[in-house]
Amino acid sequence: MLNKAQYTHFIKQKAQELGFMYCGISKADFLEEEAPRLESWLNQHMHGQMHYMENHFDKRLDPRLLVDGAKSVVSLLLNYYPEEKQPETDTLKISKYAYGTDYHFVIKDKLKTLLDLINEEIGEVGGRCFVDSAPVLDKAWAKKSGLGWIGKNSNLITPQVGSFYFIAELIIDLELEYDGPIKDYCGSCTRCLDACPTDAIVAPYVVDGSKCISYFTIELKDQLPQEMNGKFGNWVFGCDICQDVCPWNRFSKPHQEPAFNAHPELKNMKTNDWQELTQEVFSQLFKKSAVKRTGYKGLLRNIQFLQQPPEND
Fold first, then answer.
1. Which domain holds residue 89?
2. Of the residues 132, 173, 184, 222, which is catalytic?
3. Structurally, how many domains does the chain consist of?
4. Does the annotation flag 95 for ligand binding?
5. 214 in a known ligand binding site
6. What is the pTM of this model?
7. Is 138 one of the annotated active-site residues of the chain?
8. Residue 313 lies in a domain
9. 143 is in an annotated binding site
C-alpha cells in the first residue's frame, strides 16, 4: 500500500515524463483570497463581453463543486516558448501560444494519460482534467501550489522559467502532500504597465480585460472600437507585449513539444501576404490552431483594422 508521499512522487514523476515542465499540488478548498477580487473585477465589467466569466461563480472558487469528493488540485505547466519566432518587421503577428496545434487538444491528451496512469498505479481515483475551458482559476491554483507568483501583468511567473507556458489541472479525490506558495519577485519593476499600448494594466496586478489587445482580437465579436485605432501595433491575434518585456522571460527556453511548432509558412508571411489572406490559405495555415477561435472573418477584420489610417485629432 503506497502512502501520500509515494502517491505525490509518482504523480510528479509521471507528469515530468509526459513533458510537463512543472507540477505542483494544493489542497482542494475554497479560494478565500480570490473571491472578493473576482467579484470586484466582474462588478467593474473588466471582463467586457466575456459573459461566460459571470457564470458558475461558486464553482470558480471551490473545486469541490466541480469534482465530488475533491481532495487535491494538481497544477501543471507546459512550455510553449518557440525556438523560431515571427520576424519583428514587415509582418503581422499572432501570439506565440497559437503558433502550433491548439493546446487544448495537446494538453487534454497528456492529462488523460496522467489520470489513466494514476488509476493503474494507485487504484480507482475519481477526477477530471481541465484545460482553460471550465470555471477553474488556473493561475490561482498554480500560485497556491508554488509554481510561481502572479505578476503585475496578471500572468503567473516562474523563477528561472518566465511565463510562456500553459496551465492545466487535474482535480482528483485523492489526498496528497501539498506544496506551498512562493514569494512575489516583481519588486519595483513596472515594465509591463509601461509597455501596454492600450493601458489595459490599470494598476499593478489588475488587468482590465476589456482593454486588452487579446480581448479585442479574439474575444470581441463586434466591430473594433475606433479609439483603439493605431494602438495594436502589428498584432492580429492575441498579444505578447507584457510578457515580451518581462525581465523574467529572459530565462525562457524553447519547448520540446513538436505539436507546438509553427506551420513552416507562418514565419515567411509578410504583411502583404496577411492582407491578401484567403479562406483557403487560412484553413491550411491554421488547420488545428487556436487561431480558428476567431475564424477567417474575425482575423480578416483584425487585419483590415490595422490598415485603417489613424483618425485626425
1. 1-306
2. 132
3. 1
4. no
5. yes
6. 0.94
7. no
8. no
9. no
